[in-house]
Write a structure and sequence with these properties.
Mean pLDDT: 90
CATH class: Mainly Alpha
Number of domains: 1
Helix content: 55-70%
CATH architecture: Orthogonal Bundle
Order of helices and strands: HEEEHHHHHHHH
Length: 180
């Protein structure tokens, strides 16, 4: 019996480059059972937020009926590393499409590293919270990377929520765009 019979099929090339996926996997870490993340959300796999109501549909979209959302959420079921990666890759593909819409024509002007950094942020924060970086988004649309980096630095995300990860991404953004 094919254990992936009810799992939608997606090509990994559609779902994000290997480097960006590996970096998010390192940043998020993997847990097969639910845990509370740094903001007290119930999370599983590679940072998949089970307290976000819309994620019930996301789980079904990428893993079909293989998992019971409520059982995952209430520690009655775990997720495999392989399925967590499928879920991660699917969400990364979604975030990239959303970022492309958000940045419009500017997205195509960004170098690969800048796209990877923004995708990493959008994966971690979700698009609603990512859009809270309005000044950064506006600056990057104008290719004003210095202001974009300043807005990343002057954020609650950097100051309180994920300082180490934020600083790594900020350092990469500076290097990718020659910001001193």
């Amino acid at each position: 019996m094919d254990k992936y019979k009810n799992t939608p099929k997606y090509s990994f090339t559609q779902m994000g480059s290997s480097d960006e996926i590996k970096q998010i996997m390192l940043d998020e870490g993997f847990r097969s059972r639910v845990y509370k993340d740094t903001e007290d959300y119930r999370t599983i796999g590679y940072g998949f937020n089970l307290d976000e109501k819309s994620n019930r549909k996301v789980l079904k979209k990428y893993l079909g009926n293989k998992y019971d959302y409520d059982k995952l959420k209430h520690k009655q079921q775990g997720i495999t590393r392989e399925d967590a990666e499928i879920l991660l890759r699917g969400i990364v593909a979604d975030r990239k499409r959303e970022l492309k819409r958000e940045f419009g024509a500017s997205w195509n002007k960004f170098n690969a590293e800048t796209k990877n950094i923004l995708t990493n942020m959008a994966y971690q924060l979700g698009m609603t919270r990512f859009r809270g970086f309005g000044k950064m988004i506006r600056a990057l649309k104008k290719e004003d990377y210095k202001t974009g980096v300043k807005e990343m630095l002057d954020s609650v995300w950097r100051e309180k929520n994920s300082t180490a990860r934020a600083m790594r991404l900020i350092k990469r953004m500076k290097k990718a765009n020659n910001v001193k």
